[in-house]
Amino acid sequence: xxxxxxxxxxxxxxxxxxxxxxxxxxxxxxxxxxxxxxxxxxxxxxxxxxxxxxxxxxxxxxxxxxxxxxxxxxxxxxxxxxxxxxxxxxxxxxxxxxxxxxxxxxxxxxxxxxxxxxxxxxxxxxxxxxxxxxxxxxxxxxxxxxxxxxxxxxxxxxxxxxxxxxxxxxxxxxxxxxxxxxxxxxxxxxxxxxxxxxxxxxxxxxxxxxxxxxxxxxxxxxxxxxxxxxxxxxxxxxxxxxxxxxxxxxxxxxxxxxxxxxxxxxxxxxxxxxxxxxxxxxxxxxxxxxxxxxxxxxxxxxxxxxxxxxxxxxxxxxxxxxxxxxxxxxxxxxxxxxxx
Length: 340
Ligand code: PHE
Known about the structure:
Elements: H1 2-14, H2 20-31, H3 36-45, H4 52-80, H5 104-117, E1 122-123, E2 129-131, H6 132-135, E3 162-164, H7 169-178, E4 183-192, E5 204-214, H8 219-234, E6 240-247, E7 250-259, H9 265-270, E8 276-285, H10 287-292, E9 301-308, H11 309-317, H12 324-327, H13 330-333
Parallel strand pairs: 1-4
Antiparallel strand pairs: 2-3, 4-5, 5-9, 6-7, 7-8, 8-9
The structure holds phenylalanine.
Residues 167, 169, 209, 247, 250, 281-283, 304-306 line the site of phenylalanine.
């Protein structure tokens, strides 16, 4: 009898079950009416009285072990839940996944697009690899203009015919080629310049440029549109000013500043003590550009503007180093939540 018990003990050690039915089968095998214990008890009855205490103890121990085993098997079933045939448990609670957040450059880009869409601007996009015509020549860049220099532009071939676009004005050339005025469009996109990377500059950044061409478009229209944008984006009391500037493709040209204020030490630093911050370049489309693109400058006039998204995002979110936008550090990125 003791050998029988020992055998059962051994068997119990390697016993396993994966379904409720299998566990039930084991239970019946041991504890059922015709089970192992029933049989052991029959034997027990016929034992010598002397042996009974020792055997009774052994039987009880075996019974406890069987019960423990059954409990254990049941508990593994409960935690892993019902399993499919493939062993994958579809009912298990999923691990926590943190929802991602939009990149700050993406958020600002979207906000700029939304503001201009409200006043009738469409969105146009174009290739990042451009030819000389679309990036420079059609925009009235003279042959010897320094922007064509290797210093500023990533050319893709030795004879400088193809380059990574240096601005999205190239997209506007494509729009002028393919449509007739009135044209009212903005072109957001990635641009490339051969510049040293620093806290304020990067060789890759993003722009939104705008173009409006129609009959009788004036500088006053430009100024009013930019004022509208500045107030929508930076707040309704925002003041702007336009300073004369130069771009090959606009005449007259200007830089637009917004009044940032001089309330903190940081304000003095970022505005260089003036309170004003430069936001974008703009101007009236040069008649040469209209002509190069098949638009009669005697009938039509237009304005254009262009801004760097990172620069605007740095102001909006008070980010001091432009490089952070490109590092993809999750601790930086997860601070920007969007309502979009
Ligand atoms: N294309 C100019 C730039 O990249 C910006 C600009 C656009 C200026 C349109 C004037 C008019 O800096």
